[in-house]
Request: fold
Amino acid sequence: MAEIGVIGAGSWGIALSWLLTNNGHKVTVWSVIESEIEMLKTSHEHKDKLPGVKLQDSMQFTTDLESTCKDKDLLVFAVPSIFTRSTAKQMKDFVKEGQIITSVAKGVEENSLMRLSEIIKEEIPQSRVTVLCGPSHAEEVGKGLPTTCVAGADRKSDAEFVQNLFASDVFRVYTSPDMLGMELGAALKNVVALAAGMADGMGFGDNTKAALITRGMAEITRLGTAMGGAAETFAGLTGIGDLIVTCASVHSRNRKAGYLMGQGKSADEAMAEVKMVVEGVYSAKAALQLAKKYNVEMPIVEQVNDILFNGKTPKEALPELMMRDKKSEHSALPWKE
Ligand SMILES: NC(=O)c1ccc[n+]([C@@H]2O[C@H](COP(=O)([O-])OP(=O)(O)OC[C@H]3O[C@@H](n4cnc5c(N)ncnc54)[C@H](O)[C@@H]3O)[C@@H](O)[C@H]2O)c1
Reply:
C-alpha cells in the first residue's frame, strides 16, 4: 500500500483518487476550494464533477497543501493546466528531495511554451516529475470501464513505479521514456477536438471527422517530431488514441465547445455554456507559437486560432482547409516513377 496525495479535486483528480483507493492505496485529496472539500467530506461524492461515483470512506479531503504532500510516496498533479504553475509554486516547500510527482493534466503554457512537466520541474526542482496520460475520460474511469494509459518518465524505474500504483484489472498502464511526445500529443489533441466539434456542429459527417482526426494527427506529429518527440508516440495511446477519444466522445468539453461554435455561437458564448475550462483554447495559441518557432505547417491549428481569436467563422475556415495547395499525403514517400 502506498500513501498518495492528489492535488486537485476536479473530475480527473477524483476519478484517479477513486481508482488508486480501489487499488488499496491511502489517498488524500487537496483542493484550493473550501466549499468543494466540505462537500467531499460530507457526501463522499463530487456531485458537480463526477456525480454517481461514491468515494470510499478511507479517502481524506483537505485544503491543507503541506499535509497533502508530506510523507507521500507519490503526488498526483491534477489541477487544470492553467493552474499548474501557481499550484506548483505553493507546493514547492512541502516536497522533499527526490519525491515523485505525476502530472496528469494536459496543456502547454502560452508564451513560455513549456510542457506541464517542465513547469513543475522548474517550480519544484527537487522533485522527480513523471506523466500519466492516454485516452481516459474521468466519467468512464469512475465507472470502472476498461481503460489504458501510459506512464512516462526519464527513468525507467520511475515510470514502472507509477505503472504499478495505477495498474488494475480495469486500468492497464504502459510505460514510455518519451514524455515530450506524450505531453505534446495530450495537449494538442484538444485543439483538433475543437475543430472536430465545429464540424459536428455544422452538420458534417463521419468523413469530415475522420479527415480532421487524421490530418490533425499529421500536424501534431510534424510538430512533435521536430521538437524531438518519437513518431511512435504519436501513433500510440497518448497520440492518436487520445485524439480519437476526444474528437468522438460526448464527454469532451473541447469537442462540445467546438460544436457550439459550429452552430454559430461565438467562442466566448460557447465557453460560457460549457462552464468548464476549455483547455484547447489556451493550447491553440501555444500550438501556433510552437508551429512558428519550429517552422512547421499546422493548417488546422491556424484556422482554429483564427476562429477563436480573429473573428473568423467555421464556415469561412472550411474552404481555406479544403482549397489549400494540392499535395501528396506523405511527402517523404518516394514515387516508383
Ligand atoms: N476530466 C477528464 O476526463 C480528464 C482526463 C484526463 C486528463 N484530464 C486533464 O486533467 C486536468 C484536470 O481536469 P479536470 O477534468 O479534473 O478539470 P476540472 O475542471 O474538473 O477541475 C476543476 C478543479 O480544479 C481545481 N481548481 C480550481 N481552481 C483552482 C485554482 N485556482 N488553483 C488550483 N486548483 C484549482 C478544483 O479542485 C476544481 O474542482 C486537465 O488538464 C485535463 O485535461 C482530464
User: Anything to note?
Assistant: Residues 8-13, 31-33, 36, 49, 78-81, 83, 87, 104-107, 136-138, 276-277, 279 surround nicotinamide-adenine-dinucleotide (CB under 6 Å). The mean pLDDT is 96. The domain at 180-322 is CATH 1.10.1040.10 (N-(1-d-carboxylethyl)-l-norvaline Dehydrogenase; domain 2). DSSP finds 16 helices and eight strands in the chain.
